[in-house]
């Protein structure tokens, strides 16, 4: 595992075409190595319905609940959008915490499974679930056009785009999600006006510089001026095993970062292409739970 460069200022020379930014990473320890199977083995989920081929795509309960807790803690119990909801691992967690959830998935079976799985949390839960089957881009673009006129927004939007075969690459390209043609940038662009807080689940092999690139792009499409706000990445690990990462951007990142102890120093990664897993593993080896890195990237057109 490559070591992270030491002090700020030791990276490679940055070209004029590149932009600099800071990314904070925190490590959250999962309770055990089988965290990835928690939704399948948890008592309440003994009757869970899911597509067998997607069994590894269900958000583990511990991770889903961590995301939900962050939303409730910093944004309150409001209305959220769960995009690409699958069979409802995150949707169920949000509903169980009392939030009102709008959700969408392109697969009709997933939509029905989500309703069934959410109902395991008791009577009345489905009254706060508004789920539709359909193409994300068409449905969300239509909703954004209508809500923009009304001034309505979600407290937060949670994205769990399909990772696809790109996950098997050494580094994950955010422009090749799903079947290889879905771009995380386009996904955020459609929903940018619908919220001021955004949560994106992503593979552990995403480059840390691409996290800042995504945050900078979101900042631009929302029409904001000045520098983009620092994104926060939460990496979920069991021992030395990295499960996945979650990117927080916008107001929710600002609010949570205010409660995160600052890193001892900023690491300069401007000349190093490290993934989130590599960064987290290096932090774990140094017994550090919080890290901050300086990265460089080319702005998204």
Automatic annotation (TrEMBL):
A Pfam family per the record: Methyltransf_15
Per the record, what are the reactions this protein catalyses? Answer: a 5'-end (N(7)-methyl 5'-triphosphoguanosine)-ribonucleoside in snoRNA + S-adenosyl-L-methionine = a 5'-end (N(2),N(7)-dimethyl 5'-triphosphoguanosine)-ribonucleoside in snoRNA + S-adenosyl-L-homocysteine + H(+); a 5'-end (N(7)-methyl 5'-triphosphoguanosine)-ribonucleoside in snRNA + S-adenosyl-L-methionine = a 5'-end (N(2),N(7)-dimethyl 5'-triphosphoguanosine)-ribonucleoside in snRNA + S-adenosyl-L-homocysteine + H(+); a 5'-end (N(2),N(7)-dimethyl 5'-triphosphoguanosine)-ribonucleoside in snoRNA + S-adenosyl-L-methionine = a 5'-end (N(2),N(2),N(7)-trimethyl 5'-triphosphoguanosine)-ribonucleoside in snoRNA + S-adenosyl-L-homocysteine + H(+); a 5'-end (N(2),N(7)-dimethyl 5'-triphosphoguanosine)-ribonucleoside in snRNA + S-adenosyl-L-methionine = a 5'-end (N(2),N(2),N(7)-trimethyl 5'-triphosphoguanosine)-ribonucleoside in snRNA + S-adenosyl-L-homocysteine + H(+)
* Source species, domain of life: Eukaryota
Q: Listed GO molecular functions?
A: RNA cap trimethylguanosine synthase activity
Bilayer-crossing residues are none
May I have one GO cellular component term? nucleus
Signal peptide interval: none
Family per record? Belongs to the methyltransferase superfamily. Trimethylguanosine synthase family.
Q: Which PANTHER family match?
A: S-ADENOSYLMETHIONINE-DEPENDENT METHYLTRANSFERASE RELATED, TRIMETHYLGUANOSINE SYNTHASE
Its name, as the record gives it, is: Trimethylguanosine synthase
- Which lineage is the organism of this entry classified under, starting from the top rank? Eukaryota, Sar, Alveolata, Colpodellida, Vitrellaceae
């Amino acid at each position: 595992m490559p070591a992270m460069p030491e002090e700020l200022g030791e990276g490679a020379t940055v070209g004029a075409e590149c932009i600099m930014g800071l990314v904070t990473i925190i490590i959250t320890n999962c309770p055990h190595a089988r965290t990835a199977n928690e939704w399948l083995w948890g008592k309440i989920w003994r009757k869970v319905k899911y597509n067998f081929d997607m069994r590894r795509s269900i958000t583990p309960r511990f991770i889903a609940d961590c995301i939900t807790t962050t939303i409730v803690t910093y944004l309150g119990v409001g209305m959220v959008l769960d995009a690409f909801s699958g069979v409802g691992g995150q949707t169920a967690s949000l509903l169980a915490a009392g939030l009102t959830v709008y959700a969408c998935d392109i697969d009709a079976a997933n939509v029905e499974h989500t309703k069934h799985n959410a109902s395991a949390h008791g009577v009345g839960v489905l009254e706060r679930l508004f789920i539709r089957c359909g193409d994300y881009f068409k449905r969300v673009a239509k909703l954004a056009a209508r809500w923009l006129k009304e001034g309505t927004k979600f407290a937060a939007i949670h994205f769990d785009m399909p990772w696809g075969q790109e996950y098997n690459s050494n580094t994950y390209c955010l422009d090749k999600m799903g079947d290889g043609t879905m771009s995380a940038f386009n996904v955020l662009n459609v929903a940018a006006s619908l919220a001021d807080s955004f949560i994106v689940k992503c593979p552990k092999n995403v480059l840390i510089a691409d996290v800042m690139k995504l945050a900078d792009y979101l900042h631009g499409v929302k029409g904001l001026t000045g520098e983009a706000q620092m994104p926060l990445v939460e990496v979920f690990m069991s021992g030395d095993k990295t499960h996945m990462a979650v990117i927080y951007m916008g107001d929710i990142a600002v609010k949570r970062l205010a409660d995160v102890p600052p890193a001892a120093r900023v690491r300069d990664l401007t000349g190093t292409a490290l993934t989130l897993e590599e960064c987290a593993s290096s932090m774990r080896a140094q017994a550090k739970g919080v890290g901050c890195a300086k990265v460089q990237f080319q702005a998204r057109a």
